[in-house]
Amino acid sequence: MTAETSQTLDRGLRVLKLLADTDHGLTVTELSTRLGVNRTVVYRLLATLEQHALVRRDLGGRARVGLGVLRLGRQVHPLVREAALPALRSLAEDIGATAHLTLVDGSEALAVAVVEPTWTDYHVAYRPGFRHPLDRGAAGRAILAARKSPCADPGYTLTHGELEAGASGAAAPLVGVTGVEGSVGVVMLADAVPDRVGQRVVEAAREVAEALR
C-alpha cells in the first residue's frame, strides 16, 4: 500500500473479488484468513458492503456477492461495446456480414454490439439486445467451448440454422479478459460459412480482447 491509496477500500475490493471467485460463499473466518486481518475488520467490511447491496449473507452466515453488483455490471456494457466497435466494423466490412459482440447474461447469450456491412445488398438483421440460449447459435456455443477448455485455444465455432432459418454463423470466444465472458462472431445468409471467415473471426476476437485488457 502507498500513501495515496486507501487500505479500507482495498480490503473491501479484495472481499468482493474473493466472493466473486466462489459459488458457495465464504464465512467471516475464511475471509479473515484469506485477507490476513482479524474478524472484526471483516465484519465491518461486510456490513458496509451490505449497506450498498454489494454483499449479502445467507442464513448460515456465508457471505456472497449481492444484487447491487448487477446494477454496476449493467454500466459495463456500454464501455465494452465502445471498445469493441472498431474491430467489429472492420470484421463486418471485410466479410460482408453482420458482426456482433455477445456477452453472457445468466444462462443466456446477449448481443451487446452489432455492426452491419455498408456495401452488401442484403444481410441478416441482428440487433443489440437479442438474446438466445447459450447452447444455440455460434456465439453461445463458442463461449461454452471456451469454458470446457479454458487453457486451450478454442478456435472458432460454426452453426447453421440454429437461430434463423437459412442463416449460418461463426464465432470465437474472448480469451484472457478478466471479468468478461463473451464471443465475437458474424452471421450471414448462406448454407455454409466460407473457410476464411472462421480465422478472420478469431482475429477479430483477439482484437476485441486486446482492447478490453
Automatic annotation (TrEMBL):
It comes from the Bacteria. It holds the Pfam family HTH_IclR. Residues 6-67 form the HTH iclR-type domain. InterPro entries: ArsR-like_HTH, GAF-like_dom_sf, HTH_MetabolicPath_Reg, Tscrpt_reg_IclR_C, Tscrpt_reg_IclR_N, WH-like_DNA-bd_sf, WH_DNA-bd_sf. Keywords: DNA-binding, Transcription, Transcription regulation. CDD domains: HTH_ARSR (cd00090). Residues 68-213 form the IclR-ED domain. PROSITE patterns: HTH_ICLR, ICLR_ED. This is IclR family transcriptional regulator. It comes from Streptomyces nogalater.
